[in-house]
Amino acid sequence: VALPFALGAGLSIVLSALPFGAQAAPGITHRSTDRRQSMPAVMIYVQHLLGIGHLMRARLIAEALADAGCAVELVSGGMPIGGRMPRGVHTVQLPPIRVSDASFTPLRDADYVPIDESYRQARRDLLFATYDAVTPDAVIFETFPFGRRSLRFELMPLLERIDGDPRLLREIAG
């Protein structure tokens, strides 16, 4: 199973093993779209549950990566918030999850109803569809695996999908 590489401050990342725009293996095409001919694609996953601090930090990182020339997809799983969106960043809103208090259980939908398996599946489906559409060169997980363990239902399957992607590193040597 692919394990994310710790960046510190609650961030982890899985990086591309190939030069940007390269072909991975016969029959496997690395993404090349009009939006990104030679730009590295980065997918950032963030889930805020009580406040918006994690989301705001992820937005700043996403904008900085976009300013540096990356094609950035910010996937947010918390309640949508207003305000200026990060420049140059495409945002995907998963069906939102929130919690009632600092116990972080149970996970609830936007109406404070505890989520069920169909809600979890809808989030997983959109998360996977986003990953497949973006075919990122790097995936950044805000907080996981150091926190957000209650979201393993979607993050472990995504890590397994990343682990099965021949374009991405399985191991990072120190």
Structure notes:
- This protein is of the alpha/beta class and 174 residues long.
- The protein is built from 3 helices and 6 strands; from the N terminus they run βββαββαβα.
- The chain has helices at residues 53-67, 117-134, 152-163; strands at residues 5-8, 11-15, 41-46, 71-76, 89-93, 138-142.
- A 6-stranded mixed β-sheet has the order 1-2-6-3-4-5, with helices on both faces.
- Strand 1 and strand 2 form a beta hairpin.
- Helix 2 (117-134) runs parallel beside helix 3 (152-163).
- The longest helix is centred in the last third of the chain and has 18 residues, at 117-134.
- It is globular, with a radius of gyration of 16 Å.
- It starts with a strand and ends in an 11-residue tail after the last helix.
Can you describe this structure in just a few lines?
The protein has 174 residues and is an alpha/beta fold. The chain has three helices and six strands; from the N terminus they run βββαββαβα.
Mean pLDDT: 75
In the predicted model, the low-confidence regions spanning at least 5 consecutive residues are 1-36, 170-174
Distance between the termini: 19 Å
Return Rg in Å: 16 Å
The secondary-structure element order is: EEEHEEHEH
**Main beta sheet: strand number and arrangement?**
6 strands, mixed
SSE topology:
Layout: E1 5-8, E2 11-15, E3 41-46, H1 53-67, E4 71-76, E5 89-93, H2 117-134, E6 138-142, H3 152-163
Parallel strand pairs: 3-4, 3-6, 4-5
Antiparallel strand pairs: 1-2, 2-6
Helix pairs in contact: 2-3
